[in-house]
Amino acid sequence: MNWPTTMKQEYETLVNNHTWDFVSLPLDRKVVGCKWVFQTKENPNGIVNKYKARLVAKGLNQVQGFDFHETLSPVIKPVTLRIILTIALTNGWDLFHLVLIMLS
Fold first, then answer.
1. Rounded to whole angstroms, how far apart are CA atoms 84 and 44?
2. Strands 48-57 and 34-42
3. C-alpha torsion 72→78→82→84, nearest 10
4. Which residues of the chain have pLDDT under 50?
5. Is residue 99 part of a domain?
6. How far apart are CA 16 and CA 10, in angstroms?
7. What is the largest CA-CA distance in the chain?
8. Residue 28 belongs to domain spanning
9. Do 34 and 55 meet the contact criterion of CB atoms below 8 Å apart?
10. What is the pLDDT of residue 74?
11. At 59, is the secondary structure helix, strand, or coil?
12. In a domain? residue 82
């Protein structure tokens, strides 16, 4: 697999997941740019296992509630969460949910 193929797959995934909506640009706003971020994933022996390409917004000038309404930053895979919950339940551990809210 090469970079153009990886980029095409990433773009198609974003479109299929309805990651964004195309709307008319208000007169008082500028277009939010984007850029590609590339990374190679290697096996322990150093052989390239996978090419990753991510299309990310240059969001430094975005205004919450106007340019975007929600953010998503998954930091744990569902299978990992299920394993942790299974271990906690098996051992009778107490579970707590922590929510961090950043105030500007």
1. 25
2. antiparallel
3. -60
4. 104
5. no
6. 10
7. 59
8. 3-70
9. yes
10. 65
11. helix
12. no
